[in-house]
């Protein structure tokens, strides 16, 4: 079993791969059957392929996105990382036409671990803030 510090390091590496816009690297840190939940959407998706696709779609829609860690802590098998995420929607995202709007949003990621791999990611953000910011731009 990995230590909390080791899991925290993997989670930081995952966030760094996000900063680098590298979905394949992000996927490599996850188990093949990783569970992915964006709490605002309420649907659990499963699998490394889904995780990679979701972030390919995100980076295509927000090619200028940035992510800054503002808080992080680890327990035995879970890590929480809070980030400030910013980007401009210049491409299609999840089938929707680009708005050209800017997002500046706080996001919380809870990672679950087993055997040094991420087995679940739950992402918390305020969907109403996204909608408001995109429509205001």
Give the SSE layout.
Layout: H1 4-19, H2 23-28, E1 30-38, E2 44-46, H3 48-61, E3 66-74, E4 78-88, E5 102-114, E6 117-124, H4 127-136
Parallel strand pairs: 1-6
Antiparallel strand pairs: 1-2, 3-4, 4-5, 5-6
Brief summary of the model shown:
The protein is α+β, with helices and mostly antiparallel strands and 137 residues long.
Q: Give the overall shape.
A: globular
Q: Would you list the SSEs in sequence order as H and E? A: HHEEHEEEEH
SS class: alpha+beta
Instruction: Return the domain count.
Output: 1
Distance between the termini: 47 Å
Which fold name corresponds to the CATH topology?
Nuclear Transport Factor 2, Chain: A
Q: Kindly provide the name of the CATH class.
A: Alpha Beta
**DSSP strand tally:** 6
| CATH hierarchy: architecture | Roll
Please give the share of residues in helix. Answer: 25-40%
Number of helices: 4
Task: List the main descriptive attributes of the protein structure presented here.
137 residues; alpha+beta; Nuclear Transport Factor 2, Chain: A; 6-stranded mixed sheet; 4 helices
Tell me what the structure shows.
The protein has helices spanning 4-19, 23-28, 48-61, 127-136, and strands spanning 30-38, 44-46, 66-74, 78-88, 102-114, 117-124. The chain is an alpha+beta fold and 137 residues long. The longest helix is centred in the first third of the chain and has 16 residues, at 4-19. Helix content is 34%, strand content 39%. The chain is built from four helices and six strands, in the order H-H-E-E-H-E-E-E-E-H. The protein has one domain (4-136): Roll (Nuclear Transport Factor 2, Chain: A), CATH 3.10.450. 20% of the residues are buried. The mean pLDDT is 95. Strands 2-1-6-5-4-3 form a six-stranded mixed β-sheet.
């Amino acid at each position: 079993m990995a230590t909390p510090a080791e899991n925290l390091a993997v989670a930081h590496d995952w966030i760094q791969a996000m900063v680098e816009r590298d979905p394949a690297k992000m996927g490599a840190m996850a188990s093949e059957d990783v569970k992915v939940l964006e709490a605002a959407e309420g649907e659990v998706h499963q699998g490394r392929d889904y995780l990679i696709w979701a972030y390919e779609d995100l980076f295509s829609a927000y090619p200028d996105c940035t992510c800054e860690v503002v808080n992080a802590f680890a327990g035995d098998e879970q890590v929480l990382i809070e980030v400030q995420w910013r980007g401009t929607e210049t491409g299609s995202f999840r089938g929707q036409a680009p708005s050209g709007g800017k997002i500046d949003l706080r996001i919380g990621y809870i990672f679950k671990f087993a055997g040094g791999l991420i087995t679940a990611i739950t992402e918390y953000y305020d969907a109403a803030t996204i909608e408001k910011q995109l429509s205001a731009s």
